[in-house]
Design brief:
- The structure is a single chain.
- Strands 2-1-3-4-5 form a five-stranded parallel sheet, with helices on one face.
- It is an alpha/beta fold.
- Helix 4 links the parallel strand 3 and strand 4.
- The structure holds ligand CA2.
- The site of ligand CA2 has 17 residues, from loops.
Length: about 160
């Protein structure tokens, strides 16, 4: 079955590739999204739908919409990681697996970045591997779907 994956980027990530490459790498957001779409299609036959929001409300509204169509979510909540209980609540309300991704290793940076309000609402967290962290998140979702399908009765051999 074709899976639809929602990759959603939080505030300021539209600036990727323009500033702070030492923290966030040299690729633009469009380049990262394109790589994920190509990989997901060729390796698993999945569709990746990517969006970016600078505002908390629109980000939460996009997650509410994703309840109707997505099979999994990969989110980089950006700065809202460290501030937003509302975003955490929206993620908690999703009945599908969520993987939180950070380009930088937030635990090697300023103390205020060490706390993630959103992480507890995620199935898992990946941080510090740059854009490749999004690939790892897709791999994690593939493992999640495969392990669930293997344990459903219809997939069992007689
Ligand atoms: O490491 C990450 O992916 C972060 O989620 C990025 C956030 C930061 O607030 C988190 O602590 C960690 C910031 C995203 C800002 O992105 C920029 C990209 C280029 C230039 C300026 C900002």
């Amino acid at each position: 079955m074709t899976k639809r994956i929602f990759v959603v980027h939080g505030p300021n990530l539209n600036l990727l590739g323009e500033r702070e490459p030492e923290h966030y790498g040299a690729l633009t957001l469009a380049e990262i999204n394109h790589r994920l779409q190509r990989l997901a299609q060729t390796r698993w036959g999945w569709q990746v739908h990517a969006e970016q929001y600078n505002g908390e409300g629109p980000l939460i509204a996009a997650l509410h919409r994703a309840r109707t169509w997505a099979h999994g979510v990969v989110i980089n909540p950006g700065g809202y990681t460290h501030t937003s209980i509302a975003l955490r609540d929206a993620l908690t309300a999703l009945p599908i697996p969520v993987v939180e991704v950070h380009l930088s290793n937030i635990h090697r940076r300023e103390t205020f970045r060490h706390t993630s309000y959103t992480a507890a609402a995620a199935w898992g967290v990946i941080a510090g591997f740059g854009w490749y962290g999004y690939v790892l998140a897709l791999e994690a979702l593939a493992h999640y779907f495969a392990s669930r399908e293997a344990s459903t009765p219809s997939a069992q051999k007689p």
